[in-house]
Fold this protein.
Amino acid sequence: MPFIKKISVNYTDTESGLTFALPGILTEKGLIISHLRYLAWFNGKSESWKERAAFSLKLLIEYINSCPNYDKAYELLKSFRDVLLTGSIDYSTLDDPLDLFWKPRKASDVNNILFHINSYTDFLALQDEYSTSRVNPFKKATSYEERLNWCAYYNKQKNVFLNHLSSKQTAQILAQRTRYVQNISVPKVENEKVIRFPEKQIENLLYLGFERSGNYDFKSQAITMLLNYGGLRKSEVFHIYTSDITLDPNNQDEALVRVYHPSNGASPDPFYKNRKEFLLAETNYQPRNTYRSTERLHAGWKAPLLTNKDSFFEVFFNPPEKAKEFLSIWVNYLKYQRVEPKDTNFHPFAFTNKTGEPETIKNFQRLHKNAVEKIGLTCLKELGTTEHGHRHAFGYRCRSSGLDQIEIQKAMHHKSPNSCLVYITPTNEDIRSTMRKSIT
């Protein structure tokens, strides 16, 4: 009887001898080795990318088990795409002829699943032992599709560094073809409400929410300041070493915070080539972005814009005087609350839990939620009161401070100047307010 299950697998690549912890797909016929080989080939991708790739394949196999009678692979793929979009449930009978009971998915989600299926099957088509054609082959694009492809090409190229080195001849060939099974058209939404942490509540959160019986939680205060006044993503905070937070040489009463690449960043010990080598040689830990997303120590890495050959960027505090306030909180944390790692379990990470082990994202989320609720707010993404709302508040504050788009890009460590637009786009109320002022 057909079955499918996603499991954790230690996969050893026969060419390199390296072992990777990967999400595997197990069926009644055994593990799908080709997908493990595919994930190992793209091992530099994030853990969430690998999990999503495995999830997408799992969905496709479930659909194949329910609809085995298709002559052409791309016809099955098109049907799969359509069922993902519409769902498989017949709500008039509350039944499902496919026995999948899938609810409808957003078009953007369907496109992401289709991307992973295309990427994997294209990889298969390049292997010597696979003689069959691509599951989703290319066909000659219509003149309309070709124009759209050229528009997409130029839109992408304008934000690519050294784009003058790109081959226009190659682009022309690519523009003249399209997939048989194409992405779902997704309406573009602009001027959506900027979901940011309420500016008037941040001080209450820091000094009332993180207070217990007259004592402050300096660790949570410091992390929250890095998010709200430094604009860091929450995952980036958990890659910081204690040695990454120092005195600013130009302003001795302010903190200088650097965020290094988890693996390639310069080691705090110059004897080692990078941080990955340092961790593997000196500790029981590894770069935190290499843990599986299901493991407690996992912290993602969104590939921000690094600004130094040692693979780091520096935090810009906004307002700038918050660098001094952060330094005071950081010193208090080191003096009074930080639990040092045990000699048998040394690690360099800045923030620790009650036993001296590296602090986790999940535990900080719990502390943050409790603090938000303590000051009378509801902790919801839609209200901007979760951890990510702080980065939105930082981006919006940068815009309000008069920084231009390129300056905001640098402050938020984006590779593209357009990435910050989601944080700085005026809300409907901003536009109405400006109109009212212009009338009066």
